[in-house]
Amino acid sequence: MRVRLNLSTKPLETHRKFLAGAGLTAVVAGIIFLLLGWHVYSVRKIDAELRARTEKTRQEMAKLEQQRGEVERYFGQKDIAELNGRAAFMNGILDARSFNWTQMFMDLERILPPGVHVVSIEPKQVEGHVEVKLTVGATSDETELKFIHALEESKEFTEVQVQNIHRPNQTGNLSGDQQVIQLTTVYSRT
């Protein structure tokens, strides 16, 4: 019969807990490594696609810039530029003739309150819209305010800017105006 005795000064230690913890840590680190590797692969793949699209877009832009240069050279030729100027002139005439001036006067008449009358009106077409310089006479401050308010509230007349308000001299004033207002506005019928 044999008896096992441990006569050493230190008792026998087991490393089972350490080995289990180290193994678990290695497994978790391996999983994290695989996830990070997959992430890096995905990012590189997306980056490559983005670089390819960027290069394609850059090539398209260069092609369009080249075409734009060719078009500018073509329209920069003297005879084409003259033709373009004549076309712009004709379009301006057509725009002026196609505008319904009668409708503008009817809209102005609709918002004109009693006691206010138009002294002078200068409509002109500027860059696709109609600018109107108005000089109106008002019999009182109240009618003047009503007119300006009605003009600002209308949908047809926008960007109302009062240029000048003055009182006419009473000796030559046959219309009885107390105020003469000069203003500019933009007319657009939608």
Description:
This protein is an alpha+beta fold. The protein has two domains: 17-76; 100-187, General secretion pathway protein M, EpsM (Gyrase A, domain 2, 2-Layer Sandwich), CATH 3.30.1360.100. The chain is built from four helices and four strands, in the order αααββαββ. It has helices spanning 16-76, 78-98, 101-111, 141-153, and strands spanning 116-126, 129-138, 157-166, 179-187. The chain has a four-stranded antiparallel beta sheet. A hairpin with a 2-residue loop joins β1 (116-126) and β2. It starts with 15 loop residues before the first helix and ends with a strand. The mean pLDDT is 83.
What distinguishing features does this structure have?
single chain, alpha+beta, 2 domains, four-stranded antiparallel beta sheet, 56% helix, 21% strand, Gyrase A, domain 2, 4 helices, 190 residues
